[in-house]
Amino acid sequence: MRPSAGSFPFTDHNGTVWLAFQDFGDRSRDRVVVCVHGLTRNGRDFDRLAIAMAKDYRVVEVDVAGRGRSGWLADKSEYNYATYLKHMDAFFQYRGLEECDFIGTSMGGLIGMMLAAREESPIRRLILNDVGPVIPGAALSRIGVRVGEDPRFKNLQEAAEYFKEVYADFGIPDDLAWSDLTLHSAIRQENGTYALHYDPAIGDVFTEDMADVKLWDVWDNVRCPTLVLRGEHSDVLTRETAQRMTRSGPRAELVEFPGVGHAPSLMTEEQIKVIHDWLRSFDEDEEEDAVADAG
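Predicted structure:
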């Protein structure tokens, strides 16, 4: 299944940026799942998930500004969550989405959590992939070491070797998945070399010594059903934070995937099944209630 690619212009005081997305599944379906990626990634990370779920949902993968097919911001200081939330609001309006289920990996999960904390949120159900209300500063500093680098690769094989080192903790399941990741994560330059498919300026906010991020006040305002996914070896979502998330805010369900760190790729059959089954359980309950009401 090939996605249908789209984009739309967003204009504010900083000018106009084009924001991209990919659609999977029947566009007439009422049930929509929006997927938002991590800091240096892009929406195509969710392709396997989207293909598997397309029989039940319309799945939309979003490229956050500065990543993938979305445009780069002219004002680099605007790579922040306030900007990303404005862009998501514009995306919902552009696509006419009044409600959706939301899957967010790392940065994408924080965007989803902030959206879900609103009083009139479009998010019905929230899935957070390896992120929560606390992110240790040490983990941010580790991530920041590479973000902002602008390496060049002679060919895709060199790029693949780089990605296998950088994303070793993802638990990418097979060679085909690695190949797809490489193709969507590198972009050919005019001189024939390849670069990373994101704006290096997204790393400008990182410093060597980052403070812990604490967003419990946001988490406590989330009311929708929430599923938290955690990589066993993650340093971004600690087990302590994940456990507290099951007791506070929306009292999330927690699933931990063994043998991976930050962040689970969501490309394995096991991981996709956990997500698909969790979302379907709500739909089945709604269908049973509808039958009961009709009877």
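Summary: The mean pLDDT is 94.
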